[in-house]
Write a structure and sequence with these properties.
With 193 residues, the protein is an alpha+beta fold. The protein folds into two domains: 10-91, no CATH class; 106-192, no CATH class. The chain has helices spanning 89-120, 149-168, 173-192, and strands spanning 14-20, 34-38, 49-53, 59-66, 83-86. A five-stranded antiparallel β-sheet has the order 2-1-4-3-5, with no helix packed on it. β3 (49-53) and β4 (59-66) form a beta hairpin. α2 packs antiparallel against α3. It is elongated, with a radius of gyration of 27 Å. The relative contact order is 0.11.
Length: 193
């Protein structure tokens, strides 16, 4: 008779792991996941894009990285926040378009910087080259001259960066070799200093 009135423990929601990521960002390997509750009608999927309450209390985009999480130690069930909703197809498309525009701009900026390096190295160029480097790029070091070892090292690194970028983009062999040669000259001056 006593078994009929036994109090059952409350049903607990499913727990999933997420990483906070913009809708166009991939999860990081080894990135720290956060545990959230899942009460949506649709089943969660690893890689699904959702919105959760972030640390600032506002709706934050995230990606699902685990489906069978355990309640973290030192957290009560009431302290775990829910996933609000899946990202819509329109939000995902807008994020993809934004990422595409960002990638196109990054490529254009790197090509402009490489054209500046080409002109500085004395190689023929077509059209007008920029006078100032694009945002995120440093001024090109001098092609030649004298400098103390530390500065020669930095100059070599600047030209080595140009060499690696030219190589990565399949730029003309003369350009790739010119940038590598300038970097090596600076490294020789560093080592001789």
């Amino acid at each position: 008779m006593f078994g009929l009135f036994k109090k059952r423990p409350p049903k607990r929601p499913r727990l999933i792991e997420i990483q906070y990521r913009d809708l166009d960002e991939e999860p990081r390997d080894g990135g720290r996941p956060y545990v959230y509750t899942w009460a949506l009608k649709e089943d969660p999927e690893v890689g699904g894009r959702v919105f959760v309450r972030g640390g600032n209390g506002e709706s934050t985009p995230a990606v699902i990285v685990g489906l069978n999480a355990s309640r973290p130690e030192n957290y009560s069930w009431d302290e775990l926040a829910p996933v609000f909703r899946f990202a819509t197809s329109q939000e995902l498309e807008a994020a993809r378009n934004k990422a595409r525009r960002r990638a196109e701009k990054a490529l254009k900026d790197e090509q402009a910087w490489l054209n500046m390096a080409r002109r500085a190295a004395g190689l023929p160029t077509t059209g007008r080259a920029r006078k100032a480097p694009p945002e995120g790029y440093k001024d090109l070091p001098p092609v030649d001259g004298d400098a103390p070892p530390e500065k020669a090292h930095r100059h070599g690194n600047g030209w080595w960066r140009a060499f690696k970028a030219a190589e990565r983009h399949g730029r003309p062999a003369e350009e790739v070799e010119a940038f590598a040669s300038i970097a090596r000259r600076w490294y020789q001056k560093r080592d001789a200093g």
